[in-house]
Amino acid sequence: MRVRQLTAAAAAVLLLATGALAGCSGAPAPARTPAPVPSSAPPAAVTGDVRPYDRDELRDGGTLRWALDAVPATLNVYQPAATADSALLAHALYPALFRPDRHGRPVADPDYLESAESTPPGQQPQVLTYRLNPHAVWSDGTPLSVADFTAQRAALSGLDPAYAGTRPAGYDAIDSITQGADRSEIKVVLRRPYAGWRGLFAPLYPAAETASPAAFNRPLTGDGHPTAGPFTVAGYDAVGGRVTLARNPLWWGEAPKADRIDFLATAAERRLDALDQDRLDIAPLTAAVDRAQAAPGSSADLAQAAAQALRRAEALPGITVHRASAASLTQLTLNATRAPLTDPAVRQALARAVDRQRIADAALTPLGLPAAPLGSHLLAGDQEGYQDNSGAIGAVDPGRLLDRAGWKRPSGGGTRTRGGKELALTLVIPADSALARRTADALTAGLAAAGIALHPLAVPAEAFLRDHLTTGDFDLALFSWPAGPDPAADQRPVYAKPRPGPDGALETGTNYGRAGTEEIDRLFDRAAAELDPAAHLALLQEADTRIWQLAHSVPLFQRPDLVAVRDGVAAAGAWGFSWPRFQDVGLLDGRPE
Fold first, then answer.
1. I need a surface site. Which of 110, 139, 221, 392 has the fewest CB within 10 A?
2. Is the dihedral of CA 133, 139, 140, 144 positive or negative?
3. CA angle 438-4-243, nearest 5°?
4. Which residues, 6+ apart, have CB-to-CB distance to 280 below 8 Å?
């Protein structure tokens, strides 16, 4: 999903447990709760947990009430002010040529595309041929056209700095866009091969919103602006905290089951009360559970508050809590510019000393999710092509590596020392997060066994990125990165080798670990240009192997996703990699409005 890459730094600030965007494909969903994991098999990520539905069983009409963190300042997901709520609403209002399935694979959306083809691997230049659904029109009656594609490419290519937005991967590779044999055929010629081409134009905005910097830079709230989804904007009240979507009278696809959807700004700490008082039908609960205790407390206090909040959510009458593994990778990042982590041997020893299974169990089991540790920096456990590459760091005992590096353990045990200095590291975690505290406690205990002392430092979310990640003021940091369908492009900046800027200072970008190599950069570049799926995946696996060997960071687990859904509401839940098919979300026959 393209919007997951848009604000990578902001995504890091989402940390471990804020409510992230979830989605759903139109395919039948898995069971409501995770299936038991056989003891002989490793635990697996949960690809999604959406209440099964049959459109014929849903009644026509009714209003759904859906919780937002806040009414977003814009519906243009490419603007810096965009949030996960911007993306959620955009999925109901704007075209996306491809949408991710349960395993993160981009699948053509027939509501917008009749077909999409790329020239085969090895044939230059790469040419994309889109055949649009001829019935697809904007809400003002204007057909989707080449003008919309051309304007969006100009806005996102990075060629004109007056467009104050993010720079999604792939648009800078476009050489030209022209109309094909008829109005519905669009030809896109790329100046270099781009494997992630299916992620382009998702979402697509009307030319009027992207044709000039002035149009692109202004907030997009939907009021009077053309849309092209199953719903249109009927009300946008930032002060009152409500966005109302109504059926699009010009929608050409399957008719939406609900008459309208009220998206209601509801703070995480108020969501359980709102559900209990029958004021919400769908509500993400991850943050509500994780940060149930607002005031700072001990690990035990936070754990108890989170457990109580989860028990309350599960006991609410007429409510089911759905669980899935979010498309978000939680990792332990090592600062390679801060001693003693400047020594690769120390980083490698630490990476080997991390007990990922113990951590996953501590983090996920209390939330009712399988304790599935991550073994890849680039792919989620439920994503096609996932492979555990943790074996790349080798099997040498971490204590032996530390001994060789001069960090000796006292004869009676305890923390290692070298030159009279203890091997003690600070771990920066988000404040008031029970999940982060459980993870930090498991990390602390595991590293202590190797003679490494860990001191967690809880900091407010607003200071986490600003004062620590971007400045390098940390030894270790715990946060999450979004997992997208195109790791070769989306995650390259996270691992790109830092380089000196014009003033000589090191420019790290979003590589907060500050370690990188030319080889890793080349592997990402080759993967981004490799159109053969098997070869593309092989290059990603090789890049991941090198990242493990560099000991840049340690993948831990996929961030949990908890969503409450009222009984009688179908096609809703925790969507994992995919996103809602809004025309299917509705009320079962017999469920009172």
1. 110
2. negative
3. 95
4. 65, 66, 67, 264, 266, 271, 274, 564, 566
Whether pLDDT at 35 is above 50? no
* 197 close to 211: Cβ distance less than 8 angstroms: no
| Mean pLDDT computed over 274-288 | 97
Report CA-CA distances (Å) from 313 to 33, 68, 320, 432: 15, 17, 8, 19
Sort strands 476-482 and 424-430 into parallel, antiparallel or unpaired. Answer: parallel
In Å, the largest CA–CA distance within the chain is: 80
102, 48 in Cβ contact below 8 A?
yes
What pLDDT was estimated at residue 496? 97
Question: Could you tell me which of 21, 187, 181 has the C-alpha nearest to residue 99?
Answer: 21
The span from the CA of 543 to the CA of 520, in Å, is 6
Find, among 164, 24, 25, 7, the residue nearest to 84 by Cα.
7
Handedness of CA 530, 533, 534, 540 (dihedral sign): positive
Nearest to 220 by CA among 81, 76, 21: 76
β-partners of residue 247 are 231
Separation between Cα atoms, residue 496 and residue 15, nearest integer Å: 21
In angstroms, rounded to a whole number, what is the distance separating the alpha carbons of residues 350 and 99? 39
Quick one: tokens of 528? 């981004």
Q: How far apart are CA 469 and CA 335, in angstroms?
A: 9
Burial of 129 (0-12, 13-18, 19+ CB in 10 A): middle
The model's confidence at residue 245, banded by pLDDT at 50, 70 and 90, is very high
**Number of helices and strands (H, E) in the chain?**
17, 24
Gap between the Cα atoms of 48 and 46, Å rounded: 6
Answer whether the bond into residue 36 is a cis peptide, omega within 30°.
no
58 secondary structure, DSSP code: B
Helices (H), 206-339: 207-210, 213-217, 271-276, 286-290, 299-315
Q: State the first-to-last Cα distance of the chain, in angstroms, to the nearest integer.
A: 33
Mean pLDDT, residues 542-566 taken together: 98
Token digits for 197?
Answer: 């081409």
Calculate what percentage of the chain has a pLDDT beyond 70: 92
Cβ-in-10-Å burial (0-12, 13-18, 19+) of 110 comes to: exposed
Give dist(CA 499, CA 493) in Å, integer.
Answer: 12
Phi-psi region of 495 (alpha: psi -120 to 50; beta: other; left: phi over 0): alpha
**Residues whose CB is less than 8 angstroms from the CB of residue 337 and which lie 6 or more positions away in sequence, other chains included:** 472, 506, 514
DSSP per-residue codes, 345-381: HHHHHHHHH--HHHHHHHHHGGGTS---B---SSS-T
Residue 311 class from Cβ within 10 Å (0-12 exposed, 13-18 middle, 19+ buried)? exposed
Give the pair of three-digit tokens for residue 122: 């090895």
Here the tokens at position 367 are 């939330």
Q: What is the dihedral of CA 108, 113, 115, 119, to 10 degrees?
A: -80
> How confident is the model over 406-435, as a mean pLDDT?
95
pTM over 0.85: yes
